[in-house]
Structures are given as structure tokens and as C-alpha cells.
Design a protein that fits this description.
Layout: H1 2-15, H2 20-26, H3 30-58, E1 62-69, H4 77-85, E2 89-96, H5 107-120, H6 124-139, E3 144-145, H7 165-176, E4 194-201, E5 207-215, H8 225-238, E6 244-246, E7 249-260
Parallel strand pairs: 1-2, 3-7
Antiparallel strand pairs: 4-5, 4-7, 6-7
Helix pairs in contact: 3-5, 4-6
């Protein structure tokens, strides 16, 4: 009987203790529990996608994915598709979500990219993309490209680097332009006043479609709006701007300028 009571006592004690994993889950906040469940969900999807990718690879079926969402997106996807078709590589698309762990999403696409790199080399896709980007520009030579679509070379003469562009023209503008005698300058805590200009720069270096907006925090300075617009136009037209390049090819482009008042 003493043995039976001892066994019962031990069972009761063990029942009162939780498994460490269960205890940890019990101590989780609702947010942590929700996150844990979500990760398990994506993990199961990832495993299934990886398994399917391996099956397709065994069948010699390769697929390249264009990504959309919080990632770099390319203008030359159609050109890229044509290049990939020469290697019998299929095309698909996938979205990238910043709220999902990167290693648990698009696992099929990741496995496929690993196999493509393995078969053709790690620089294979990048080299095709370079060719595709050039082909896109060749196919769109008459397009006026946005500033961001162009290569990082300065459009302003005598600049040594792309970074110089953002300060050189402003410095030279103020060498060219004088402040009116009673212009009211910005005080330390005031917001900046500025000139915002944009124009089209052709492949031949010709300027057109000049658009200028001026914002004065001090309303009294608006009487000089036409004066600064005229000086800005004169500065743009007298400057020998350098035509832009995109993928190394000379193109027409938009050129934005921002000039701050003192």
C-alpha cells in the first residue's frame, strides 16, 4: 500500500509540472504567440515550395522570377524574358513582403535561382540584365528619361563626380545672381525658401520645357518672384549641360534643380 501511495504522490507532482516547451508557450504574450503561429505557417509553405522546386529541377524545368514589392524593380523585364527564353528558362513573378521573414518566403523562387546560378554561374543573371537594360534603351531611344533612370554621371560641366552635381550648379547660380538690396533673408529658425526648376535636356544638349516654381517663406519676398524666375531661366540656358546616359547610351532626360535662398 505504501508503494501505491508513493506512486500516486509522484504522479500528482509530475502532473503539476509543465513541460518546459509548454511552459514557455504559456509565458508568451499574445503578440508572441501570434508571431510564432505565423512563422510556423510560412515555414510549412517554404518546405512545400522547396520540395516542389526540387521535383521540377529533376525534370530539368527552370524558372526565373521577377520580384515585385519592397525590392529593386527593372524596366527591362520584357528584354530579359527574351534572353532567358534562349536558355529554355521559364518566367514567373513573385511578391516580396517586408512583414514576412525573408528566408521563409518565395522558397520555390529561391531554390530555382540557386539552381540557375549553379548551372550557368553566379554572374549569369547579372550579365543578362546588363544586356537587357541596354536593349531597353535601344528600343526606347526617343523616350525622355527621368533623372533617376539615368546613369550616375553629372549633367553639369566640369564636375568630377556625380555627387558634385548637387552642389556645383547652386554655387555657380549665386555667383551669377545677386540678391536685391532689400531682400529679407532667412532667420535661423525659419524654414528654407527655394527655387525648384526642371527642364528637358536633349541628346544633343539642347534645353527645352523649362518649368520653375519659387517658394518664399517670407511673403514680402514674392515681389522678386519674376526676377528670380528670369535669372534661373538665364542660368539654365547659358549653361552647357552634359547630356545624360542610360545603360551607357546617350539619351534625352529630365533635369531637376533645387536652389536654396539664404
Amino acid at each position: 500500500m505504501k508503494i501505491i501511495y508513493s506512486i500516486i504522490f509522484l504522479i500528482l507532482i509530475s502532473c503539476g509540472k509543465l513541460n518546459p516547451q509548454i511552459q514557455a508557450e504559456k509565458n508568451q504574450t499574445p503578440k508572441e504567440v501570434e508571431l510564432d503561429v505565423e512563422n510556423k505557417y510560412w515555414d510549412s509553405i517554404c518546405k512545400e515550395e522547396t520540395k516542389n522546386a526540387k521535383k521540377d529541377i529533376e525534370k530539368n524545368k527552370l524558372t526565373y522570377f521577377h520580384y515585385f514589392g519592397m525590392v529593386v524593380q527593372y524596366r527591362s523585364n520584357e528584354e530579359m524574358n527574351r534572353l532567358l527564353s534562349k536558355y529554355n528558362i521559364g518566367i514567373d513573378s513573385a511578391s516580396y513582403y517586408c512583414t514576412v521573414p525573408g528566408e521563409l518566403q518565395n522558397c520555390y523562387a529561391i531554390k530555382m535561382r540557386q539552381e540557375i546560378d549553379k548551372r550557368y554561374g553566379k554572374n549569369f543573371i547579372d550579365s543578362l540584365r546588363t544586356i537587357a537594360e541596354k536593349q531597353y534603351v535601344i528600343n526606347n531611344l526617343n523616350k525622355v528619361y527621368s533623372f533617376e533612370e539615368c546613369d550616375t554621371i553629372s549633367r553639369y560641366p566640369n564636375d568630377k563626380s556625380y555627387r558634385d552635381f548637387f552642389k556645383s550648379y547652386e554655387k555657380d547660380f549665386w555667383k551669377f545672381t545677386e540678391y536685391p538690396t532689400d531682400f529679407e533673408y532667412r532667420k535661423n529658425k525659419d524654414s528654407y525658401s527655394s527655387i525648384s526648376a526642371e527642364f528637358t535636356l536633349s541628346k544633343n544638349g539642347e534645353v527645352s520645357n523649362i518649368d520653375i516654381e519659387i517658394t518664399f517663406q517670407n511673403k514680402k519676398n514674392y515681389k522678386y518672384r519674376s526676377y528670380f524666375i528670369t535669372k534661373t531661366k538665364e542660368f539654365i540656358l547659358k549653361t552647357k549641360w552634359i547630356p545624360a546616359k542610360s545603360a551607357g547610351i546617350v539619351v534625352s532626360s529630365k533635369v531637376p534643380l533645387t536652389i536654396f535662398f539664404k
